[in-house]
């Protein structure tokens, strides 16, 4: 197995990562029949990543992409009225023409979200929920534990068009109340965000020092070198200042025990710090519930 000269956790950790990934792949070949299973990187973080819960998944760029839009069922939740965005996104030959399972307005979501069966239907019929950044803050109360409990299927936040530059008002309209309204919708820009969400990995920032974040970094049928590269991408995003203000908020000393695992395996070490062994346990992912 070739060594990378820039594995941020060091050569020893890289060797251990390769060893653990080989063991994980061999274990799953013996225990399950499916050809592929997700591989997760779990990181014990020694400092809090956010001062408050904002329910905004942070998308982490990966060299080797996890999936394609065409393989996912995606629902978009927009501000009202939704037809402005639906018409632009589903028009013939738009890049997003076939990207969405459905496009619904916040008003419509409010009208049916009180019934649990409706939320369960929305949950089961979609792999990913994305929402206009202007209404994203209302979703925890509407979607509730069906989507947010144990971080099950938390909606991603997207913008419908690039933010106006330097306060420019081009493309904006004024309402009857003389307030500026932004009804712009750029299918190419929306598609680029969808492709990033589907292809890359993500995590939710934790509030407490010592919490664990878990990120998908690939699949068990991938080459080990690809998995190692994506693991390095995650570490790089967390510690490199070029990703600020969203990423680049840690340094290597903030990272505790790091493991890899699948849905059906124990956690195997990437880097285990001697002073963390007793405190960190087996490195399983954070299963704490969100508060509402």
UniProtKB/TrEMBL annotation:
Q: Name one GO molecular function term.
A: RNA binding
Lineage: superkingdom: Eukaryota
The family database entries (SUPFAM superfamilies) matched by this protein are listed as:
Ribosomal protein L1
Q: What is this protein called?
A: Ribosomal protein L1
Q: Which Pfam families match?
A: Ribosomal_L1 (PF00687)
Q: Which residues form a coiled coil?
A: none
